[in-house]
Amino acid sequence: MKRSIVAVLVLTGLILGAFAYVYAQQDYHDELILTYPKLKGSKIDKTCLCCHFIQEGTGPRNPYGVMYENTEELGDFDAFEKFDADGDGYTNIEELNAKTYPGDFMDHPGSAKYKKCVTFFLSLDTTTKKPITVCAVDGKKVDLTPHGGACYIKNGKSMAPLRIGIESLGGTVGWVASEKRIDIKKGSKLVGQMWVGKKNAKINGKDYPLDAPPEIVSGKTFVPVKAVGDALGAKLIWINRGKIANFVL
Q1: pTM for the whole thing?
Q2: Are residues 99 and 42 in contact, defined by beta-carbon separation less than 8 angstroms?
Q3: Secondary-structure class of domain 117-249 per CATH
C-alpha cells in the first residue's frame, strides 16, 4: 500500500514538473512575442525553434536560446539584438525583423554570407547546471558525448573534442602515435600540426604557440579550437554572453 502511495506521489511530481516546464517555456515565448509584436502569427510564433533545436522546445537550446538564458534578466531580448547568435552574418534583430530564426544558421533574411558555421558552447546549461554537451554544425545539433563530451576553457582557451571541429570545418585528421602528433589537412595540404601536451604547434608552416596544448581527457583528445580554425582558414566570432564560439567559413 505504501509503495502505491509513493508511486502516485512520484508520478504526480513528474507531471507537475512537466507542466511547470511547459508553462515556463510558454512564458518565455509570450515575452518574445510581447517584445516583438510583428512576430505574432509568424513561424516564430508557432514553434519553439527560435530558442531550441526542436520545435517542441525541449532539450538543449540553440545559440540564440543560449544567449537568452544567459541574460541578467529573463525576457530582456533587446539586450542582445546586435549580436549574431547563429553565425550566419545577420544580427539577431535583423533576423527577427525578417521573421527568420536567429538561432538557425540555415535560416536568414537574405543571401548566405558564409558557407559554413560550427558553433561551440563553453557555458553551463542554466537548467541542469552542467556543461552543454552539444555543438551546432550549420545550425544542426550534434551530440558531443561520443566524441569526448562538452567543450571547456583552459588557460583562457576554448578546448573541443579533436575530430568534431576539424572535420566539421572541412579538414581531415591524421594521428602519429609515436610522436603523439595531430596532423590537420585541408584537401591534400598539411595546414597544421599539434602535439599532445606540448605548447609548440605549426600552423600553415609557421610556429604557433599554444597557451593550452592538446590533452587527453578520459581517453579522448581535446584541442584548442582557435588553432584549428586558424589552420583551416575559419574566422572566430566570439560572443561572451553565453560563451559562444562561432567558426565561420
Answers
A1: 0.88
A2: yes
A3: alpha beta
